[in-house]
Amino acid sequence: MERNKVTFESIDEYISTFPPEVREILQTIRKVIQEAAPNAEEKISYQMPTFALHGNLVHFAAFKTHIGFYPGASGIAAFQQELSAYKGAKGSVQFPIDKPMPYQLMSRIVQFRIDDNIKRAEGKLKKKQKPLQ
């Protein structure tokens, strides 16, 4: 049986489906990420707004009571202490909608993820460039 699953083509389309107060939060998160990662590509991945630079940097999504922010396991681990006040998992954190959003923290996590992705990309490039013996 096929399910009627909504598929989004753009971040604008995704954001437009929410009430005004949630749209405002999502647009601010988008702006924070754009400012922290001006060269990142916007896309939809896993049906969530996603920013990519040398691989996915972060995803974010709105839910009934929280904003899900997905910087991957390395992003969560690097900011474990600052994120300890929030619910989360190995690669995600939940920011309650009814509380102030930690936009500065999000920006710092994105900047960390940029550095992390660049290091990973450089490591892969070095492995490819090793001469055969």
Please give a handful of descriptors for the protein shown.
23% strand; 133 residues; Aspartate Aminotransferase, domain 1; 5 helices; 6 strands; YdhG-like; Iron chaperone; alpha+beta; 6-stranded antiparallel beta sheet
How would you summarize the topology of this molecule?
Layout (H helix, E strand, L loop, with lengths): L10 H5 L4 H17 L4 E5 L2 E5 L3 E7 L3 E5 L1 H7 L1 H4 L3 E3 L2 E5 L6 H27 L4
Helix pairs in contact: 2-5, 3-5
Protein name: Iron chaperone
InterPro entries: YdhG-like (IPR014922)
Pfam families: DUF1801
Structure commentary:
The chain has about 130 residues and is α+β, with helices and mostly antiparallel strands. The chain has one domain: Aspartate Aminotransferase, domain 1. It has 5 helices and 6 strands. It has helices at about 10-15, 20-35, 70-80, 80-85, 105-130, and strands spanning about 40-45, 50, 55-60, 65-70, 85-90, 90-95. It has a 6-stranded antiparallel sheet with strand order 1-2-3-4-6-5. A hairpin with a 2-residue loop joins strand 5 and strand 6 (about 90-95). Helix 2 (about 20-35) crosses helix 5 (about 105-130) and helix 3 (about 70-80) crosses helix 5 (about 105-130). It starts with 10 loop residues before the first helix and ends with a helix. This is Iron chaperone. It comes from Paenibacillus mendelii.
